[in-house]
Design a protein that fits this description.
Blueprint (H helix, E strand, L loop, with lengths): L1 E3 L2 H43 L5 H32 L6 E3 L1 H18 L2 E6 L7 E3 L1 H17 L5 E10 L2 E8 L6 H6 L15 H11 L3 E6 L5 E7 L7 E3 L1
Parallel strand pairs: 3-5
Antiparallel strand pairs: 1-9, 2-4, 5-6, 6-8, 7-8
Helix pairs in contact: 1-2, 2-6, 3-4, 4-6
Amino acid sequence: MEQTFRHDDHRRLQEQNTELATLAGGLAHEIRNPLSTMGMNLELLAEELEGDETPRARRMQKRISNLQAECRNLEDILNAFLQFAKAGELDLEEGSLNDLVTEYCQFLEPQAEDSSVDVRLHLDSNLPSVMIDRSLVRQALVNLGRNALQAMPEGGAIEFLTHFQNGKVVLEIIDTGHGMDEKTRSRMFQAFFSTRSGGSGLGLPTVRRIVESHHGQILCESDPGKGTRFTIVLPPSGVSNTVSK
C-alpha cells in the first residue's frame, strides 16, 4: 500500500540528516587535527633519515612509510564517512538525468580507456526531467562507476541506459565484470562492509542513501562471472513523492 510522503515525515528526515551531518563534521574536525600532526611529524622523520643507508635507518624508513600509508587510508575513510553523512542533505533542482549521466561518462571515459573498458550510452531522448541534487547524484555515479571498473581488471564494458517505465525515470548501469555472489549482494549496502582490501565499505551505502533521499529506489542483479546490473528508479519532477507502507 502506498501513501503520500507527508510533509512532517520529510521534515523529520531532514532534521535527522542535518544532525548526522553536523555530528560527522565535528568528528571529522576532531580526527583531522591529530591526523595532520601525525602526518607532519612522520614527514619530518622521513626527511631526517634521507641519505642514511644504514640497515637501521632503512628499517625505520620502511616503518615510517607504512605509517604514512595508514594515515592516508584513515583520511580516505574519513572523507568517505563525510560523504555518507551528507548524502541526505539535498539541494534540489529540476534537471535532466541524461545530461548528468552524459557529463559523468565524459569524465569516466579516459580512466575506462586506460582500463580497456568500453563506455556505452543508451539514453531515452524523451526522458522526463527529475528533481535532483546534481552534486550528490554525480557522487552516486562516481561510486558506481568506480566499483564497475574495479570489477573489470582485465577490461570489459559498462553501459548506462535510461528509460521511462511505469511512471518512473529509470537508470541502469551494467558491467561485464566478475559479479557478486548472493552473500555479498545481501551485505553490499551495509556500512563498512567491503570485499576489497583497503576499501572503506561506504561507497554503496552512500549510493543507496543518496537515491533514497531522492525518494528513489536502487536494485541490484548480479551473479559470479556474469557481471552486475544496478537499477536506480526515481520519480519524475512534478509527481508527488510516495513511500511504500
